[in-house]
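thread: overnight batch results

M.L. [08:02]
morning all. the overnight job finished for the chain we discussed friday. pasting input first so we're all looking at the same thing
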Amino acid sequence: MSVVDAWYVVQTHVNAEAKAACNLLRQGFEPYLPRYLKRRSHARKVDQVAAPLFPRYLFVRIDMQAQRWSSIQSTSGVARLVCNGSDPAPVARHVIASLKAREGAGGYVKLDERPRFSLGEKVRVSAGIFADSLGLFDGLADRDRVAILLDLLGRKVRVSIEAGLVAAA
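M.L. [08:03]
and the structure it wrote out:
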């Protein structure tokens, strides 16, 4: 049995989340595409770009008594509406509410910043001046940087480096 006026999950085609959301909006549905700011490094330039929080998925609010949800299946950019059997599978309201509550002023979901490594864990620098150097994770330097201990000239030196340039060894 379906729920009246609830949120549902739509699976989109690859990289078509925004296209699907736009087309659903044109049809009178209320789409919700949670996005976050992703760090992108290209040609020695680091910037932030909007990216979907759930690649290939978005949410849509449907009033089951007033709207024909079957039209969603043939919407450009949409692969399918996620269903349980023949009925769309509703999403708990608190899930959408908690995502929207985490949005900042720009409308992007703020992600928790947690260290990916344990203290003393072996890491490898993937790019930059210390590329391919091995070190030990020594904590967070600031919001976007981590501290690692590198063996330079026979002694351990604490270096602060972009978090995205460090991977597990």
